[in-house]
Amino acid sequence: MNSIDKNKKWSSFIIINIALIISAICYNVLLLPMNIVSGGTGGVATILKTALNIDPSVSLLVLAIACLIICYIFLGKETTLASTYISIIYPLYVKMTGFMVDLFIIKKADIFVIAIFAGIISGIASGLIYKQGYNSGGFSIISQILFEKLKIPVAKTNLVMNTTIVLVASLYFGIVKAMYAIIYLYISSYVIDKVILGVSKNKAFFIVTTEADKISSYIIDVLNHGTTEFGVKGGILEKKKDVVLVVIPTKDYYKVKEGVRMIDSKAFFVATDSYEVKGAD
Fold first, then answer.
1. CA 106 to centroid of chain Cα atoms
2. Pick the residue with more confidence: 129 or 235?
């Protein structure tokens, strides 16, 4: 292993541990005291703390070990080893940072703001872990198994598991707390995507039109952006048309949109976020 690989490995190790510590602090300081169920093993640990007064770190560790055993049975040694460190160390960080709840005075009346900030903080922490090529362990292992063996999409499995956990939590904490949990989960998922993909600074337009030359001239001469043209055939009427592909800064979105409408009011176009652009003519 060369020095670059070693540095990258240590950098990844440090980032993962910082993310886990941040996640543990967020759980102890913001989620657990307010009984906001975070989904996954953390959500189950919160429920068990209220229902049976079990230390959350113990619940997290037991659930993590159970998931690792299941992982070993269905996915083998290599996959299990890749998930072991995070699965075991996170409950320990939760135990170590438990005292921090006494360092912060947080009013329960501010639960809406707490749910938002907890979602942002947890999303950043989880996103950093995923960006290093690892998962957060716990029930994400179950999602991975179901995908590998039954081809059930991970997102669908996570949705079902988290929804079930939140519904169970509503029996203990009430429907209002379940609503806050949903807000937290939505914000957390959104932030995870932004951390992994980054914030989009560009938009990609796919413009299907019979006025490709005029639209390209407008984009090139007026907006000073390059274009790519290629032919397509409709799937129903099988009419041949041209597609103009252009990637532009987000600030020029409406200029392109309105320009296309002025040139060809019947043009069909799709605009989507573009997170990375490489290469040019």
1. 27
2. 129
Helix (H) or strand (E) holding 119: helix 111-131
Per cent of the chain over pLDDT 90 is: 50
pLDDT band, residue 235 (cuts 50/70/90): low
281 pLDDT tier (thresholds 50, 70, 90)? low
Domain extent for 24:
3-197
Residues 62 and 35: beta-carbon distance below 8 Å: no
For the segment 67-105, what is each residue's pLDDT rounded down to a tens digit?
999 999 998 888 888 889 999 999 999 999 999 988 887
Query: Are the CB atoms for 199 and 132 separated by under 8 Å?
Result: no
Proportion of the chain above pLDDT 70, given as a percent: 95
**Residue where the block lists tokens 């320009």:** 259
- Please give the tally of structural domains in the chain: 2
What digits encode the pLDDT tens for the residues 107-116? Answer: 777 899 999 9
Read off the amino acid at residue 158: N
Q: What is the dihedral of CA 43, 73, 16, 36, to 10 degrees?
A: 0
Q: How many residues does the chain have?
A: 281
95 within a domain of the structure (yes/no): yes
Residues 259 and 122 in one domain: no
> Under a CB-based contact definition with an 8 Å cutoff, are residues 60 and 45 in contact?
yes
Let me know: does 203 contact 233? Beta carbons within 8 Å: no
What are the residues whose beta carbons fall under 8 Å from the beta carbon of 250, sequence distance 6 or more?
A: 200, 201, 202, 203
- One-letter amino acid at 189 equals S
What is the distance between the alpha carbons of residues 211 and 233, in angstroms, rounded to a whole number?
15
Same domain, 217 and 154: no
Distance CA 23, CA 93 (A): 9
- Token pair 């759980």: residue: 27
